[in-house]
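Try it yourself: sequence plus magnesium ion, in.
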Amino acid sequence: MNLRLSTEILTLHTRHPFIIARGGNSEYRTLMVKITDHDGVEGWGEAAATKFYGETLETVQASMPVYAPLLGDDPFQLEAIEARLIAALPGNAAARGAISAALHDLVGKRLGVPLWKYWGLDRAKAPRSTFTIGIDTPEMIRKKVLEAAEYPILKVKLGSNDDMTILRTMREATDRELRVDANCGWTPAHAIAMLPVLKEFGVTVLEQPVVPEDLDGLAQIKRAAQIPIIADESCVTSGDIPKLVGRVDGINIKLAKCGSLREALRMIAIARAHGLMVMVGCMIESSLGISAAAHFTPLVDIVDLDGAALLRDDPFVGASIPAGQVTLPEAPGLGVARR
Ligand code: MG
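Structure, out:
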């Protein structure tokens, strides 16, 4: 009997409107994917579609009737199933990522082991996660920094016209470690001009300063920088890694970009082979989506899995980041349950 796929829309709200260089929102809708085997065991995943990568909730929903008949009857055939999905309908990474997560959850549940253990990982090796402060007024930034008191590493979103005010406000509000994500908001010249400023404010990592296709711009910035430059929007799948070698110091992997947990593991191996640092990031998503990415955090250098921590109505419990410490569940599969 074939694996059965069903879905459920999740409506999520951030505690504060979450603004980055290309805009923001406070209500987010994601799609929960449930895959059920012939014994009634259910695997779960979550698709957090992003318009920037060409997906919406509606495209994710529309892709499911294409993917569902291709699942076959054996969830352990992860490689073959994922190959069938991408061959039938490429792109749609958030949709495929949710199916990949649900299949891995199902496999873990059938074996009675959490995914990190199935992969042979030591969960104590997971680096601490950042917590992100979105673009906001100085007053709100001070409030958010106070609310985020438990997190020892903060990530700040730049790339607006208020960068200097935001940096100054952050630094006045806290002496914690700061990392910056410009979300493609700068030119190479502006990014290079910002480097001494970032240094003055003690910023330790700079993520995606320029537009995705400006790889030479990234290289110029890397040459001038004393802190790691991480490619996020410039690095979607493993195929993007070879051309980033020598141009950045590391890559940021997200399930909603790469479309598969197996592809995420391939990206880690390829990045390591090229001496690149590895970061794992997320979208605004519940603990279901966050948990899928959290299971491979013992393999990475930089963790930014705050998507569920930013919510006020997370429907799930699973992997979490109390005080920034990635905490991986002992329960089988993704280890996620309804709250
Ligand atoms: Mg980023």
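One thing you can check immediately is this: The longest strand covers residues 4-20.
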